[in-house]
Design brief:
Helix content: 40-55%
Radius of gyration: 19 Å
Structural class: alpha+beta
Strand content: 25-35%
Largest sheet: 4 strands, antiparallel
Shape: elongated
Number of helices: 5
Number of strands: 7
Distance between the termini: 6 Å
Order of helices and strands: HEHHEEEEEEHH
Length: 176
């Protein structure tokens, strides 16, 4: 696996570790995203309360503030997620709720890349797994994302799963 390209895309070292691993979102990343969310929602609230704008301005500002608050709530929820990868399965634990996909039941693997702005070398990779009636999504903000990605690609290759052209191109680009 070309860990250099993946490291550059993720903004930190990407190494594949031995199984089992528990993948969690990086706390510093979550704090930074939560701070941006708070700044956006509180800034909008300050505009609404401090300036008392007309409805033409106030409604869009309120809508953007709600979006920032929703994004913040998503970051709070991400803190509780644990994605476990073992030799037998991949599972996502969210509080008491557990979604498990045995590797033998994996039906679909997708890897998408979302670039930030016009810079193609900075962005977010999103890995989506489906099988056994479950769907799991994980993005490159997680600490052991490279390990989860490597094993998902290995299982997809070993099981000869049909892979969409975008995912195939992304796997090839990363050397998987």
């Amino acid at each position: 696996m070309q860990s250099g390209l993946l490291s550059r895309l993720m903004g930190r070292p990407a190494e594949v570790k031995n199984l089992p691993v528990t993948v969690r979102y990086v706390p510093t990343l979550l704090r930074w995203e939560l701070a941006k969310s708070a700044a956006g929602s509180l800034g909008g609230l300050a505009i609404l309360l401090g300036l008392n704008p007309s409805p033409w301005v106030g409604v869009p500002v309120a809508a953007v503030s709600v979006l920032f608050a929703g994004y913040g709530w998503q970051q709070v929820r991400r803190r509780r997620l644990a994605f476990e990868v073992t030799e037998e399965r991949a599972s996502l634990r969210q509080g008491a709720r557990v979604q498990t996909i045995p590797w033998a039941a994996l039906e679909r693997v997708q890897l998408k890349y979302y670039a930030f702005g016009r810079r193609a070398d900075h962005g977010t990779l999103v890995l989506a797994l489906a099988g056994a009636g479950q769907r799991i999504r994980l993005d490159s903000g997680a600490d052991e994302f490279a390990t989860a990605l490597f094993y998902a690609a290995q299982v997809a290759r070993n099981r000869a799963l049909a892979i969409d052209p975008t995912t195939l191109a992304n796997f090839e680009q990363l050397g998987l």
